[in-house]
Amino acid sequence: MSLAYRSAIVRPPSPALGQCVSSHPLAHTVDIRRAQAQHQAYVDALVNLGLDVTVLPPLPLPDSCFVEDTAVVRDNRAVLTRPRPESRRPEVDAIAPVLGEHFDCVRVEAPATLEGGDVIHLSDRLVVGVSSRTTPDGVEQLRTLLGVHVDTVTDTTMMHLKSHVTAVSDTLFVCTPRFTGHRALRAEEVVVVPPPESHAANTLTINGTVLLPAGCPLTTHELRERGFDVVELEMDQFRLCDGALTCLSVLF
Description:
Layout: E1 7-10, H1 32-48, E2 52-55, E3 71-74, E4 77-80, H2 89-100, E5 104-107, E6 119-121, E7 126-130, H3 136-146, E8 150-154, E9 165-169, E10 172-175, E11 189-192, E12 204-206, E13 209-213, H4 217-225, E14 229-233, H5 236-239, E15 250-251
Parallel strand pairs: 1-2, 4-5, 7-8, 10-11, 13-14
Antiparallel strand pairs: 1-15, 3-4, 6-7, 9-10, 12-13
């Protein structure tokens, strides 16, 4: 069992993408035209999987295509986050009126910080990372605002939990060795990605089809062996920005 999605909100990459908040030493080498083409292929994949995709206009903010970090949507409520980097907080203000057309919107309050890249949705709970971007108070506010059970994974050296763990279904996770066996995964099935394919831990499952970064044959094979349809997408320009598949959309 897994959550069903009907809609997505995306925002194309800013021409200033290479100036994003990224620890990657080659972030400044981003090819914006290639990034734009990869983003369009991502949007096309969502449409082909039956989602109603809202494409917002680009913003002059380097990280603004990574819309996942700005909100956590569940049921009829959208929690507007409070990103750790101050430069990213205007992104939340920009997406708030769009989400307000669909949901009751509430905000994470200072001094807590919370980013959507730390939040894994399951049908009966959330798994949330306490990371370099999300604080314990941010997790507690999220739990209260959504009224949902939350399990946590704490490692303040990681940027986001979803760089290491994503859920393909309620009972199957894709995970780097770093968190294999963590109690928050509740001993469910785990596909452990090999170190050369570590970026494959960030998967995006849309109604039973798994989107996976291209160039990860071992992980792709493992998921297909388990009966999943897999769509591979080029994401190399977004990896230069510490970004990945889940970062590029808000799903509901």
